[in-house]
Amino acid sequence: MEFDCFVVGLGNPEDKYLLTRHNAGFRFIDTIAKDSGAVEPFKDRNLRAYADCFSAHWPNSNNLLLVKPTTYMNNSGEAISQLIKRFKPRLEQLWVVYDDLDLPLGTVRLRKKGSAGTHRGMVSVVDALKDENFPRIRLGIGPKPVHVPAEDFVLKPFNREEGIVVEEMLKKAKNIFDITITQGIDYAISKYSE
User: What domains are defined for the chain?
Assistant: First the structure.
């Protein structure tokens, strides 16, 4: 099967991490999967050890491969490497969605390219690709309280009020993704630049 777009949400695979801040990327994948109709597990023996993958059909006739790396956040690049070996996508077909501590909670940022910053999962991805020129959606989970180490903060779940904001953020991110797929990334950036 050929795919038009590869959407990789970053996160950690165990249930205990499911609702933590660091799993915003996984939750985006779940949102896309829910809204894309028929979603089927994509079984590939080379990818199976590195990621859970699902094929999906977006309403505008795009075939998506939704990817949740199972290599844990800081080794996300391992899954990306396997994805590249298997499908050889162009960089503009590869989307990475991840939590961003530097953005206020609920903020969504769309970018065509950019550095990994201090996000260890993205550092791993950029190292694997040897390139920063791929689109990404950043999901705001900040700000971090001054007295809490970043590694502890990102592994905490959202409280009830924050959870409501997160659900709205995921809907907004899905809408931005949809506009990008249907009308192009430049249009989406112009419409949703914050």
Answer: 5-192 (3.40.50.1470)
Which residue out of 22, 57, 119, 147 is catalytically annotated? 22
pTM: 0.96
Active site residue 22: yes
From 131, 54, 55, 42, select the one nearest 90 (Cα to Cα). 131
C-alpha to C-alpha distance for 74 and 79, rounded to whole angstroms? 11
Where does residue 151 rank: exposed (0-12), middle (13-18), buried (19+ CB within 10 A)? exposed
Place of tokens 């915003």: 24
117-155 pLDDT, tens digit each:
999 999 999 999 999 999 999 999 999 999 999 999 999
User: Is 171:31 a contact under the CB 8 Å cutoff?
Assistant: yes
CB atoms within 10 A of CB 15: 7
73 alpha carbon, distance to own chain's centre: 11
Angstrom distance (rounded) from CA 77 to CA 125: 4
Q: Is 166 helix (H, G, I), strand (E, B) or coil?
A: helix
User: In whole angstroms, what separates CA 179 from the centre of its chain?
Assistant: 16
- Classify burial at 146, counting beta carbons within 10 Å of its beta carbon; exposed 0-12, middle 13-18, buried 19 or more: exposed
